[in-house]
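INTERNAL AUDIT FORM
Audit reference: QA-55
Scope: verify that the stored structure record matches its stored sequence.
Auditor: D.O.
Record contents follow.
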Amino acid sequence: MEGVFVFSCLVLAHLVIASGLTLLPVSYDCSNQQGCQNVKGQQCCLSKFRPRGKRSLSKQQSGYCAAFGTSGQSCLVEQGTQTAPYYICPCAPGYTCVASGFRDFPLGDLGTCQLQCTDNSECLKGQCCRIGEVLKGRKKRSAYNGVCTSFGTLGSKCVNGTDPLTYNNVHTECPCASPLDCNVSDGYRTIPVDFATCG
């Protein structure tokens, strides 16, 4: 009887492979972040249910193990407790959650995972290592840590003239993508960086 069962399983596996169907990856259940520590490549305990209001955030819910977020995936700028399941997985190590300007109630500020960088060479083609606006006055940055950001598109913010950070192989704002130029000024000049838009 046991031999018949094994034979049936082998025949079923052969039919699945021959038909071209793909099997879904195994999903592991969890109740907190520690439940996913021993699962290879899947470190986040993601809640199976989305909260409908602040009250449901405090309820103990079950979850499943899922991969951390990578480039371009959604994330929460401020994650909640480490013990309960997350509603959106945090970014993987080496990535940071950059705010997108949108807020999800009751979860919080939404963002996208972007690769951290200290140099343009660490980013993909068509991207630059963007630090953000230069600190004014006596304030100085302790380190040039930025995120890989795509070149500017039509209407994107850019640096008009010389970017003071380019000698460090990073940028205040990414250059405009070809064939656009950074020349659409708002008529105001800021010091030490003059911003414009790609056009």
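Auditor finding: record pair retrieved intact. The chain has two helices and eleven strands.
Action required: none
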